[in-house]
Amino acid sequence: MIKYLLLSFVFFTCLFQEGNGCPIIVSRRVYISIVNSLPPKTAPLTVHCKSKDDDLGNHTLTVNQDFHFDFCEKPFSTLFTCDLAWGNFVSSFQVFNAKWFFVPCDGKHCVYEAKESAIYSSDGEPWGTWICADGKDCYPDP
């Protein structure tokens, strides 16, 4: 009897876990990347991402570097935001929200690219705007 209970436990544990540690029934693993595609010989990009539960700290990226992280989504609950700083310009935006009807990526892999004109999502659409120190939208001069 104990043998069958143990086998049942192992079976149900495997059933509810993806190979990446997320429960299959209620969650999925999501991958986020922030890429510095700013012009060469300009200030580095500083990235700070956080959720209600996790603060991923500050990361300084030179041109063509990326910062990436992953997490198990909690349906209708997970929200990650990132703050980007480049010289005197900043941008703050949601990189993942479990409540989104429209997801700006393929659902599991989200890539955001910091360019001189704006922050772009995986589908090439502008996703974030650079804001000047005075709080107005602006186009940064390299």
How would you describe this protein?
This protein has 142 residues and is mainly β. It has one helix at residues 2-15; strands at 29-36, 45-50, 55-61, 66-72, 79-86, 89-97, 109-114, 119-120, 126-128. The strands form 2 sheets. It has a 5-stranded mixed beta sheet with strand order 4-1-7-8-9, with no helix packed on it. Strand 7 (109-114) and strand 8 (119-120) form a beta hairpin. The N and C termini lie far apart (71 Å). The model is unreliable at 4-18 (pLDDT under 50).
Mean pLDDT, all residues = 82
What's the alpha carbon Rg, rounded to whole Å? Answer: 19 Å
Shape: elongated
Which residue ranges are poorly predicted, with pLDDT under 50 across at least 5 consecutive positions? 4-18
Put simply, the count of helices is 1
Number of strands: 9
Helix/strand order, N-terminal first: HEEEEEEEEE
What structural class results from the helix and strand content? mainly beta
Largest sheet, in brief, is: 5 strands, mixed
Residue share in helix = under 10%
Kindly estimate the percentage of residues that lie in beta strands according to DSSP: 35-45%
Intertermini distance: 71 Å
Strand adjacency order, main sheet: 4-1-7-8-9
Oligomer: single chain
